Structure formats: structure tokens, C-alpha cells
Amino acid sequence: MVGAQFAKSMALALNKPLIAVHHMQAHVLANLIGDDKPAFPFLCLTVSGGHTQIVLCQSPTLQEVIGETIDDAAGEAFDKSAKLLGLPYPGGPLIDKYAAAGNPNRFKFPEPQITDLNFSFSGLKTSILYFLNNAGESNVYKEEFKADEATKRKFIDENLADICASIQHRIISILLNKLKKAVKQTGVTQLCLAGGVSANSGLRKAFTELGKQNNWQTFIPPFEYCTDNAAMIAITGYYKYLAKDFADLSISPSARS
User: Strand pairing partners for 44?
Assistant: First the structure.
């Protein structure tokens, strides 16, 4: 709010145009920074702690969300799973780190059957919760499987790499299976990643391999442009300036959009 008020005051005092930038739009347009950039139209899988979306981009200023999460975001699924494992916040990068040494096929977690191009991660989180509480005996709630804390902790410690790899494998498969479906529906084969979770090494590798397998072009911003950064805001402001997409002084920031 302080930043927005300062920008409005500055625009008024200097008689300069005011440009409003949507945070998630800026994550998408981070793919336009640098020389290696997609052609329009492209699909962008945008994954962060608060959002999971598939965006159809017709131009820098014309974007349509064609799929999104109906509950938790992918980043939340990583962080909440890490918390269940007893890892510190933010846990997503730690799951990525431990997963590198693990077997992604060791433990099986369910993939939610959500219609169209939307996502859901709350059911997966519940499955992981029961799996850990049952020390790996089951993914569902059964009182007879519930382990005491010492047994649960021992199971996690002895199998941490495989658990992390299996969790990461399922989250990534959920994301990419929906992206494949979006390609089939739209016919668009220029694919981008965006958002903080696009820094995940497992997702970056699987996304790139998916493109190679299907002869699709894939683009991922450098690590420094995946998490929140000023450059993505600047490039979005640049394209909105070119389009003369200006805001008036009545605009206000929103922390929930």
C-alpha cells in the first residue's frame, strides 16, 4: 500500500502515466526477459506458493487463465508436505534437495481426478498425512495403522530421500499431465514455466524432457527471474506502456488477486 501510494503521488506530481502490474502476469512475462523467448501464442504453467495456473498468452497484454487450482497451490503442497516431514519453512527447496538422492517410484501417492484443466492438491496433502502417520503402511485413515511418534519419526528419517522424491514426483506429474491436456485442447506447443516453484530442479528437468519427447518448444526463466523479482515487474510495465495500458489514481493494490 505504501508503494502504491508513492507511485500514485509521483505520477501525479510529475504528470507521468501510472501503470498497474498484476503479480502473476509479471511471473508469466519473465519468460520474455533475455534473447531466448517464446513466440505467441504460448502456454505458461505458473506455479508458486499461492497460485497454480495454466495461462494462454496471445500477446504480452492478452492473457487468459484456462486452468487453476481449486484449493491448495503446488507451492503450498510442497511446503505443507515438508512441514509434515518435520522440515523447516520454506520446505519446498528442501524436498527438492533430498529428492535428488531418492527413488521417485518407491512410494505411490494418488493423482486427483479433477475435470478440465483445473488442479487440486488438498487430497494429495491428506494422503501424505495419513501415509506418514501410518509410518508408510497406508495412504488412508485406519486407526489400526496409526503409528506412535517414535515409529513415525524413525520411518521418516530412514526413508526421507525416497519420501521426498515420491512426493515431488507426484506433484510434478499432476502439473505436467494437465499441461499436456492443455496442449491437446489448444494446439499450442510453445510452453513456458513461471513462478517460484519453477526454480524446482525436478520440475525443470521433467518439463524440459516433456518438450523433447513431444517436439514442443520449452522455455524457463533463469533462476533469478523465477522467484519474485523487480525485472519481471519492469518488463510487464514496459509492455503495458507500449500498449498505453495506464491506470487512474483510483486504483488500489490487492494482496489476494
Answer: 55, 192
Q: Which domains does the chain have, with CATH numbers?
A: 2-69+187-242 (3.30.420.560), 74-176 (3.30.420.40)
pTM tops 0.85: yes
Average pLDDT across the chain, whole number = 93
Q: Dump pLDDT digits (tens) for 32-49.
A: 998 889 999 999 999 987
Per DSSP bridges, beta strands 217-219 and 190-194 are: parallel
184-201 confidence digits (pLDDT tens): 999 999 999 999 899 899
Residues 6+ apart with CB under 8 A from 130: 138, 139, 140, 141
Cβ–Cβ contacts within 10 Å for residue 186, how many?
A: 14
For position 256, what pLDDT does the model report? Answer: 67
Rounded CA-CA distance 124/162 in Å is 17
